[in-house]
Amino acid sequence: MRTSVISEPQELSDPAFFSRLENVELRAQSIVEGFLHGLHRSPYVGYSVEFASHHEYVQGDDPRHINWKLYARQHRLYVKEFDGDTNLNLYILFDISSSMACASLGRSKLDYAAALAGSLAHLAIRQHDAAGIILFAGQVLASLPPRAKSHHLQEILGVIASATPQAQTDTSRAIHQAAAMCRKRGLVAVISDCFDDLPRLLDGLDHLLFLNHEVVLFQVLDPWERDLPLEGNIRFRDLETGETLTTVSEGVREGYRAAIQDWLAELNAACLSRGIDRVELTTNDPLDRALLDYFMRRSRH
């Protein structure tokens, strides 16, 4: 199944669309540069740096990986390959359901998740891995299969930039659909707030594990959702159903925080028992630091 959220050709000439695309691209580049700078200063050197073999240079290969000593002996250009260069298909599953529109600090979870998705694609393709993108809400809404070519990054960023909040969540149904599209074994990065029935969410993740994918769950939350810091009368509005509830924050904060912590603990325990890495992020977390912390943890496995 392959659809697109860009339904009309004239939308491709929309200046607003290209503005969003530019913002996603610049944000992704900034995050990746910050991550790589932090990586360079850290003791972690295990991310796609182990030399494996050579292949003859072809147009599009990174000149920085040319083995000039080998060229001096054989007068032919060869490029160094690394273990991470040829072994990974990255599938990015990006939740664009209406709950991702929450933006208590002025930046929505959707925008934050878009920057994260763009950064992961940027990193993968920079490492010569193949990256693809799947947008989902109640079902799969748009997709691009993994490819490793540099121009494919622009296509991925275009799909990400076009994302707008869509309908209600049905994470289980959508992930089952996405799993059928992740044909080659790889790394699946699920980016979502996980606001769905927990057993159904886990059922979808189990499908990915059954297919022998490695699964990473990037759970993106708004600080307001996690901590309920507001004072006085507040009105809750369900971004997916439109239902509202008015109450006094001081009267519900303690119970709300306890319920959120129980939910997060249950989700975390379920992920741990399945070997799924769960990375909890809020929209005020610097993404380059979050990526560095995650890959540092990953290197210790």
Low-confidence stretches: 1-14, 40-51
Number of helices: 10
**Per CATH, what is the topology?**
Rossmann fold
Approximate helicity band: 40-55%
What is the correct CATH architecture? 3-Layer(aba) Sandwich
Please tag this protein with its features.
single chain; Rossmann fold; six-stranded mixed sheet; two-stranded antiparallel ribbon; 10 helices; 10 strands; 21% strand; disordered N terminus
What report would you give on this structure?
The protein has 301 residues and is α/β, with parallel strands linked by helices. It has a single domain (9-40, 85-299), classed as 3-Layer(aba) Sandwich (Rossmann fold), CATH 3.40.50. The protein is built from 10 helices and 10 strands. It has helices at residues 15-41, 68-74, 83-86, 109-126, 150-161, 171-181, 198-210, 223-227, 249-274, 287-299; strands at 51-56, 78-82, 89-95, 130-136, 140-147, 187-192, 214-221, 233-237, 244-248, 277-282. The strands form 3 sheets. A 6-stranded mixed β-sheet has the order 5-4-3-6-7-10, with helices on both faces. A two-stranded antiparallel sheet has the order 1-2. Helix 1 (15-41) crosses helix 4. The radius of gyration is 21 Å and the shape is elongated. Residues 1-14 and 40-51 have low confidence and may be disordered.
